[in-house]
Write a structure and sequence with these properties.
The complex is a heterodimer of chains A (371) and B (857). By secondary structure, chain A is mainly beta. Chain A has helices spanning 3-20, 366-370, and strands spanning 50-61, 66-77, 92-102, 107-116, 122-124, 130-133, 136-140, 146-151, 155-161, 168-169, 175-177, 185-202, 205-222, 228-238, 243-251, 261-265, 271-275, 280-283, 288-290, 297-299, 301-306, 311-317, 323-325, 333-345, 348-359. Chain B is an alpha+beta fold and 857 residues long. In chain B, helix 15 (476-487) packs across helix 25 and helix 25 packs antiparallel against helix 27. Classes of the chains: A mainly beta (371), B alpha+beta (857).
């Protein structure tokens, strides 16, 4: 689960709900047994309060110029049925983060955007998959390929992603329980290995690229309990065909929350759920990066071990500075970036790439904000 | 310098009254000019500063003629991002009525705060979590509720409003409750309009104004390296039909053009007072020269050059101008408070809603005061100063240099006035210059100047004609008075000319206004035929979105008292370089029930009936004259879907606004501008229904839910004339100042004459003339002066009124006025004027009487 999204949207939703002085009933809660069907469920679920589509990936140009990219669309419901019939009445807010890591050039760019649907300059359709924010868009074409396009003054991405591997449904067939309190759950699936091709525009040059992407789509109404300081989330695509998703929640007392978990997808697409305690995520001493903007200190290299899968990995940021500042949208500062993975699988060398998300290192703890 | 102080300053100090009255005359003249400039600036300033600040950093804006931009077109304008950031904006007017405060108009600004921060900065008084300039999402949370509004601290504090206060505003006929969620600090957009700004979310603004589906405009902040010209051209070529790109300042320009005629007329009037003030300078210097010829002769004999003599008198004029200008500047600022109050009703009734406050006295106005008083005063003094420099040293000292012992009537002196009057007549036949009647004003100036140069000749003739009958029929002191006037024609003619000029203006304006009022009152009686007139309570003339609610319209239409209604809608659209009014009205009802007064063609009613459902319109006379269109012309009107060509079916008389009205049948209007609410309704009652009773019943059935104003025919007819009178109040006020200045001149001149005639008066006393007789004689002179001025003023005034009615008004406002002589007014004002001038002789008369007594001792 992409917790930065949750955190940001929950903070925002709480704030907006408080100001509007209505607890906003009228949103649907995630329940067990709702089956997830694709491609229908790629489309928007406006009956749920929160929803996001999260793409990350590592791509390379023909000249081996390497990039990492992130494109995230958030939909945050504010009022399921606005009394005002104006097209500008705010039912949902659409927030988008787009980032490009020029790994070879060791540079990082990001931009964020927030819009109401208004007369149609942002939105997410329900009949087919299309989510957009001005001219930034994610949609599915007639061949079933995901098309991502977002361009800013500095850079642009225009990518086509294939659904190569079967969908990974998290939790109980996509029903993902998030806490001990009843109803704190979401519907959550991932496409963990999407062969990607397209173009990256940077410095006025357009480069053809290929690589692998990862997509998360999650929707629900109430997810979180408010004692977490932050979390560390890993998505790893290994060269041996295995995909690994792991996250740990850091609690206020410094302990690791028991709801931390993970999923291992083997090369034959078999799923193995990893519960807290069956994996270890440990920052490597002496490998931290201090953000000159937020002052936060991020561990940019990790020791990752999953004994049951025989995995012992070292995860290192492809570029240290991959911190986002999203004052224009979610307002959360977090680190999300491309990573290199090396290590051993059952004592044989293995390599991979992926994405790492680290939240709660900058600003007040999410728990404080939520309380 | 010592010489100057001896010759000029001491002399000025010796005659404090004359010096003071001349300086005061210049001061009043300058004051009126400054006051009117401030007034004109204020009516625009309210609008343009609001425009500039509310436009924020928007370099261009996308607008649509009529009711605003169709919001469904906005997503397709995504390509505008190539040029910069866009933000849709809704603007409107709200009326706030609070107990203990008069109704106040507030400007509503509805924006999408998520987009708008690129264009405008909002600084909150009470900082939020992220400081005084809140993050967009935080700001949105303050505005999300449809009743949330952010007001300015400047407006709220004095009215006891604070965060969480609730208030009810009126829009059209609706009452809307709002809650204040934050206050804007006193900077940026909050500073304009004296803080009368309400900031709301764009969705809430649409709901409050009832303008669903439309935004007022889309503001565009150009990217840093984009040139406005290039962007404007590029965008214009890509916009779909019906959308226009323009600079925010163009709106200001259109309003400025709209007000140009009104402002020019005020400016022209203000200069009359100044010209009269300059006459005073001319007069004072002339008298100074005349009475000191012997002294000048001595000076010349002592070796003072001609140039030095000229400089002495110009120096005197300069002192008068500087003192007068300085006093006038300050006086003008004070006067402006009053003139703005007089004009702001007119401006906001007829043109734009404006917050009138006098602008600060900037260097521009100081410069204007200097430029108007100093060079013009020197120019006025040049002729007498030149004459002084021509005094021959020997002749003057020997006393053989009599100026003009007895005025002679010389025919060859008449060529100048004759030429000027001829030029005046010719100028009056020329057309306008860009809708401004510049030649008309030139004609008026030529006539006034021509008449002024005729004054000596007229005075000589009149006094000669008067002498015999006065001697036979009246007392000897009256005969003496006429004789004295006759003997002092060269000295008096300037004062009399000044007085006559101001009086002629007064007469001309009285005749013009009288005729106009008569015409309007006839027009009102003919055209205001409906029994009741319904309008939204919070509506003032220029509010485009202030409409009647559909349920109110239905309620009135279905009332058993009502036989027929005409729902009309009017909007402002840009046309040429100004804004005109486009109206939609039910032609059938208008033809069968109401009565338009048509100018052309002869079968206008049939033409109008044929226009129903067609792209044919009837236009007001002012539109026809200003845009130079006539029956059969094709007019290209901007609409939300591009330009539409309409044919002019008829031209009708309309005095309700000078900008021009294009009226079409409601069906045609809705076809081009969409179905939008009614701005008002005219109601024709069933037979034998009492209008007052019907009005009460309708108001009762509407109840408190809506604020609707229903006026009866009688009330509205009176109201039209009341607005008319208030419009011209400023005109009378300005004229009054000119007359006061002129009377000051008469008093000053008389006093000088008395002082000069000390010896003569002493002789009169010695031969047994009583003090009462002396007084009567001097008062008699004043009366003769007054009567002569008034007589000349009447004649010139009538000529000027023709120029005003048939040239200036037609060209600047596009109105046909039927000439009508307000006889009673002229008789009364003439009597009053003669009385006033006679009274102006009171002080000189007393001085004369006292002076004689002193000589006795």
């Amino acid at each position: 689960m992409r917790q930065a999204g949750i955190a940001a949207t929950m903070v925002l939703a709480a704030m907006l709900a408080a100001s509007a002085q209505s607890p906003s009933p009228g949103w649907k809660a995630a329940v067990v047994g709702r089956t997830i069907k694709l491609p229908a469920d790629h489309a928007s679920h406006p009956e749920y309060k929160l929803e996001w589509w999260y793409y990350t990936g590592n791509v390379e140009a023909a000249d081996a110029h390497r990039f990492g990219y992130q494109l995230t669309f958030f939909r945050v419901g504010l009022d399921p049925a606005p009394a005002n019939r104006s097209a500008w009445a705010v039912r949902d807010l659409f927030m988008t983060h787009v980032a490009l890591t020029d790994v070879s050039g060791r540079r990082y760019h990001f931009t964020d955007r927030m819009n109401r649907a208004g007369p149609g300059w942002a939105g997410a359709t329900v009949d087919r998959y299309r989510v957009w924010n001005d001219d930034w868009e994610a949609t599915i074409d007639s061949q079933g390929r995901h098309r991502l396009s977002a361009s800013t003054a500095e850079f642009g991405i225009d990518l086509s992603l294939a659904e190569d591997r079967p969908v990974v449904l998290h939790g109980e067939r996509g029903f993902s329980s998030k806490g001990s309190a009843a109803g704190n759950a979401s519907l959550y699936y991932s496409l963990t290995r999407m062969p990607t091709r397209g173009a990256i525009t940077i410095d006025g040059r357009k480069l053809a690229v290929t690589g692998l992407s990862w997509m998360d789509h999650e929707f629900g109404t109430s997810f979180l309990e408010a004692q977490q300081v932050g979390w560390d989330w890993f998505s790893i695509q290994l060269e041996d065909g295995r995909d690994l998703m792991l996250f740990q929640l850091r609690r206020t007392d410094g302990s690791i929350d028991p709801h931390s978990s993970g999923t291992l997808v083997d090369a034959g697409s078999g799923l193995h759920t990893l519960n807290a305690g069956t994996f270890h995520l440990q920052p490597r001493a002496g490998r931290t990066w201090r953000s000159p903007v937020s002052g936060a200190r991020y561990p940019v290299s990790w020791q990752v071990s999953v004994p049951s899968a025989g995995l012992d990995l070292i995860v290192t940021a492809a570029v240290d500075d991959q911190e986002l500042h999203t004052e224009g949208s979610t307002g959360v500062t977090y680190w999300e970036g491309a990573i290199d993975v090396t290590g051993q699988s059952h004592s044989r060398p293995v390599q991979g790439r992926g994405y790492l998300e680290m939240t709660g290192y900058a600003g007040p703890s999410m728990g404080t904000v939520l309380r | 310098m010592r010489f100057f102080s001896w010759f000029v300053l001491r002399r000025m100090a010796q005659e404090p009254l004359r010096t003071a009255s001349t300086a005061l005359g210049v001061a009043l003249g300058v004051a009126v000019v400054i006051a009117i400039q401030l007034t004109n600036a204020s009516s625009l300033a309210g609008f343009t500063t609001a425009l500039n600040v509310v436009s924020g950093r928007a370099g261009l804006e996308i607008a649509s003629p009529g009711t605003g931009v169709d919001e469904t077109l906005i997503p397709a304008l995504g390509w505008l991002r190539e040029f910069g950031d866009i933000s849709p904006v809704i603007e409107g007017q709200l009326v706030l009525r609070q107990p203990g405060h008069p109704a106040e108009r507030l400007r509503l600004l509805g924006v999408d705060v998520l987009r708008d921060r690129a264009i405008r900065d909002y600084v909150l008084l009470s900082p939020t979590a992220t400081g005084q300039t809140p993050a967009p999402r935080e700001f949105l949370s303050l505005l999300l509720d449809p009743s949330s509004a952010v007001l300015t601290a400047r407006f709220s504090a004095p009215r006891g409003l604070r965060v969480r206060s609730t208030l009810t505003v009126e829009v059209g006929d609706r009452r809307v409750p709002l809650t204040i969620t934050a206050l804007l600090a006193d900077e940026g957009p909050a500073r304009v309009l004296d803080g009368r700004l309400v900031l709301m979310d764009i969705a809430a603004a649409q709901q409050v104004l009832g303008t669903f589906g439309r935004v007022t405009r889309v503001d565009l902040r150009l990217a840093a390296d984009t040139s406005v010209d290039t962007a404007e051209r590029a965008i214009a070529s890509r916009l779909p039909a019906g959308l226009q790109v323009r600079r925010p300042a163009q709106r200001g320009q259109q309003v400025e053009n709209m007000l140009a005629a009104f402002h020019l007329n005020l400016t022209a009037l203000s200069y009359i007072a100044l010209i009269v003030g300059l006459f005073l300078v001319y007069n004072t210097i002339s008298v100074s020269v005349l009475s000191r010829r012997a002294e000048i002769g001595t000076l010349r004999g002592l070796g003072i050059t001609r140039a030095e003599v000229r400089a002495l008198f110009l120096g005197e004029a300069a002192i008068l101008a500087v003192v007068g200008g300085a006093v006038g500047l300050l006086l003008g600022r004070l006067l402006a408070i009053w003139t703005i109050a007089l004009t702001s009703t007119t401006v906001s009734t007829l043109y734009i809603a404006t917050a009138a406050a006098p602008p600060a006295l900037t260097w521009r106005y100081v410069l204007l005061a200097c430029v108007t008083s100093l060079p013009l005063s020197l120019l006025a003094a040049l002729v007498p100063a030149q004459e002084a420099s021509g005094v021959s040293p020997t002749a003057a000292t020997r006393g053989i240099d009599d100026v003009e012992p007895r005025p002679r009537f010389r025919l060859r002196g008449l060529w100048l006035p004759a030429m000027l009057l001829g030029a005046g007549a010719w100028l009056a036949t020329l057309g306008p210059v860009g809708n401004l009647p510049l030649f008309g004003y030139a004609a008026a100036v030529a006539i006034v100047l021509g008449a002024s140069f005729l004054v000596p000749a007229i005075l000589v003739l009149v006094t000669r004609l008067l002498l015999a009958p006065v001697r036979r029929l009246m007392r000897v002191e009256d005969w003496l008075a006429v004789n004295n006037v006759s003997a002092s024609v060269p000295r008096l003619s300037i004062s009399i000319a000044a007085l006559a000029v101001s009086l002629s203006m007064m007469v001309a304006i009285a005749v013009m206004i009288g005729s106009f009022r008569d015409t309007v009152s006839y027009w009102v009686a003919q055209t205001l035929q409906a029994d009741l007139f319904v309008s939204p309570g919070a509506r003032q003339q220029p509010g485009p979105d202030e409409t009647l609610s559909p349920d109110v319209v239905d309620l009135i239409t279905s009332s058993p008292d009502v036989a027929a209604v005409d729902r009309f809608r009017s909007i402002d659209v840009p046309y040429a370089d100004t804004r005109v009014r486009v109206g939609g009205s039910d032609f059938d009802v208008l033809l069968t029930r109401g009565t338009l007064l048509f100018k052309a063609p002869a079968d206008a009613r049939a033409e109008m009936r044929a226009a129903i459902g067609q792209d044919a319109v009837v236009v007001s006379e002012s539109f026809s004259l200003k845009q130079r269109v006539s029956v059969g012309s094709i007019v290209s009107l901007p609409t939300p879907h591009g330009s539409v060509e309409v044919r002019v079916a008829a031209v009708y008389f309309d005095y309700s606004n000078d900008r021009g009205v294009v009226m079409m049948d409601r069906s045609t209007f809705e076809r081009h501008y969409g179905e939008i609410g009614a701005s008002g309704m005219t109601v024709y009652l069933a037979p034998n229904v009492d209008p007052d009773a019907a009005r009460e019943r309708l108001l009762a059935s509407i109840g408190d839910a809506h604020n609707v104003v229903i006026n009866t025919q009688a009330w509205l007819r009176a109201e039209v004339l009341r607005i008319f009178d208030s419009t011209f109040a400023i005109t009378y006020a300005l004229e009054l100042v000119a007359i006061v200045v002129a009377i000051l001149g008469v008093a000053g001149t008389l006093l000088t004459l008395i002082l000069e005639r000390e010896a003569e008066l002493t002789v009169l006393r010695l031969i047994g003339t009583t003090r009462a007789q002396i007084r009567r004689m001097v008062m008699g002179e004043a009366a003769v002066i007054g009567a002569a001025s008034q007589a000349i003023g009447l004649c010139v005034g009538l000529a000027l009124s023709l120029v005003l009615i048939y040239v200036v008004n037609v060209q600047s406002f596009g109105w046909t006025i039927q000439f009508h002589l307000p006889g009673m007014f002229l008789v009364q004002s003439s009597a009053l004027m003669v009385l006033a001038t006679t009274m102006a002789g009171l002080y000189p008369a007393r001085r004369a009487a006292r002076l004689t007594l002193k000589q006795d001792q």
